[in-house]
Amino acid sequence: MFENTMPRYEILSEESMAVLDKGWRRIVSELGIEFMKPEAVELFKAAGMRTDGDKVFFDPDFVLEQVAKAPREFDMQARNPDNSVHIGGNSMVFSSVYGPPFVRQGDVRRDAMMEDYRNFAKLAQSFSAMDSVGGVVCEPSDAPLDSRHLDMLYAAMTLTDKIYMGNVVSGTRALDTIRMSEILFGSRESIEQTPVCISLVNCNSPLRWDDRMLEAQFEYAKAMQPVILTPFLLMGAMSPVSIPATLAQQMAETLTGIALTQLIRPGAPVVFGSFLSNIDMQSGSPQFGTPESAIGLLCTGQIARHFDLPFRTGGGLNSSQTPDAQAAFESLMTMLPTFLAGTNFVMHTAGWLEGGLVASYEKYVLDVQMLESLQKEFTPVDFSEEELAFGAHEEVGAGGHFLGAEHTMERFRTCFYRPFLWNSDNFERWTRLGGKDAVERAKEIYEKKLEDYEQPPLDDAIRAELEEYVVRRRAELGD
Q: Residue 51 forms beta bridges with which residues?
């Protein structure tokens, strides 16, 4: 887990925040928010909110009262304590790509398989910069639809010893996540005391929380497992073609989702979520790594801090079809403001390609390299007297060089970050060694990582109980 102690890059003035505050208040009170689960509407009605069918009209001050009940920061336990994390404050937690139905290996784009999911779990375990395999790193088409979540959870729990994400397609699948977590960590009491999984609950923007996501939200909140309340906002499709309007909508949707969580169980951990970009106004296709998405990301960090909440946004997002220069540029356009904003939980850190339709093996490695470089860039420099290296100047003198100086010889192995992927050989040596570009080298690295992978130890009795649960539930689900 990385601690980002650098100053935050804040672009919203007090006047801008006041405009946004007025905007979200008008949305929740005058337009209302739809909640497609009757129990949610009843909770708000019982709390004094005006309702009309599925729509709830909010007193903004009531929303803020509920939001204030959420913890400002919280811990998450991994089954290997060395991989436990903290959500909030200066902490940045990095998770893999989430949701692609397709996989790319080299020039081959194909349906994702369960073996791909296992491979990405192994890669997440193998790279220390990654804090979590995530959730649906890819959708394995060769596993039955109704029970594949069991296989993915089992893989995340056994092939990694890091935190993982829960399934949110239905309340039943959320319960499976909770039950398997209880097996892995010993009891319901254990996971309620310190949560073990975090889950993404998306708003069906504009202004609607759908029933399936709400069912999952109810189960996780009851079990004190954190949920990331995230509007799905592509300007021009799910929100107006205006950054201020989209930010106000994001605030209205996220804050009301957080308010519901606190009505379900006061004090349940939440994360202020953001997934904000725009569409191509010529083709209608989603665009990622855009200047507008970067601005929205920076604003979101400032907004979340305004409400004193941990937040999620950013990642290695891009619209490119292959792991090329466009993919790298757009991903950096998103990852750099992710760090500048001090994002607490980062989904889609590694592997995202083609607007999120593809999980790419090579892109995964490229992204981890970018992540490590940014972590080094955002590590404060030690400005101690020793680091001024005055003695080195005395030794070398004017017109000399520092290659053989004592100061250099003592530090040359660790003085600079050494990238595991980039190549700085001269042209002749690079050609002699095969003339491989970054994507080819990334392929060699992920293949070597998978070859050298060692499964983290797990108690045989716990493994057997997890296996029994998966087999039993698969049969109960008809698979």
A: 56
List the one residue out of 451, 450, 465 whose CA is nearest residue 158.
Answer: 465
Name the band, by pLDDT with cuts 50, 70 and 90, for residue 275.
very high
Quick one: pLDDT at residue 104?
Answer: 98
Torsion angles phi and psi, residue 229, rounded to 5: -85, 110
Per cent of the chain over pLDDT 90 is 100
Residue 143 dihedral angles phi and psi, to the nearest 5°: -105, 140
d(CA 4, CA 410): 28
Q: Give 188's contacts (C-beta < 8 A, 6+ positions apart).
A: 178, 182, 223
pLDDT at 70 over 80: yes
Q: How far apart are CA 98 and CA 86, in angstroms?
A: 21
CA distances from 343 to 48, 232, 289, 365 (A): 34, 17, 16, 21
Asked whether residue 390 is assigned to any structural domain, the reply reads no
CB neighbour class for 415 (10 Å; exposed up to 12, middle 13-18, buried from 19): exposed
Angle at 345 between CA 351 and CA 29, to 5 degrees: 115
Which of 374, 377, 333 minimizes the C-alpha distance to 352?
333
CATH code of the domain containing 156 = 3.20.20.480
Instruction: Report yes or no on 438 lying in a domain.
Output: no
Asked whether residue 164 is assigned to any structural domain, the reply reads: yes
Rounded Cα gap, residues 320 and 288, in angstroms: 9
pLDDT band at 311 (very low <50, low <70, confident <90, very high): very high
Q: Which neighbouring-strand residues pair with 198?
A: 165
State whether the Cα torsion 123-126-130-136 is positive or negative.
positive
Domain assignment of residue 15, yes or no:
no
Q: Would you mind telling me the total number of residues written for the chain in this entry?
A: 479
pLDDT surpasses 80 at 270? yes
| Residue 388 DSSP class | G
Task: Give the pLDDT score at 121.
Answer: 98
Q: Is there a contact between 134 and 95 (Cβ–Cβ < 8 Å)?
A: yes
Global pTM?
Answer: 0.97
Q: Which residues contact 294 (CB under 8 A, 6 or more apart)?
A: 333, 334, 336, 337
**Angstrom distance (rounded) from CA 117 to CA 135:** 10
Contact 89, 73 (CB under 8 A): yes
Q: How confident is the model at residue 479 (pLDDT cuts 50, 70, 90)?
A: confident
Q: Is the pLDDT of residue 358 over 80?
A: yes
Q: Inter-axis angle of helices 361-377 and 438-452, to 10 degrees?
A: 100
> How many domains is the chain partitioned into structurally?
1
> Could you tell me the residue range of the domain that residue 260 belongs to?
2-8+68-377
Tens digit of each residue's pLDDT (9 = 90 or more) over 431-458: 999 999 999 999 999 999 999 999 999 9
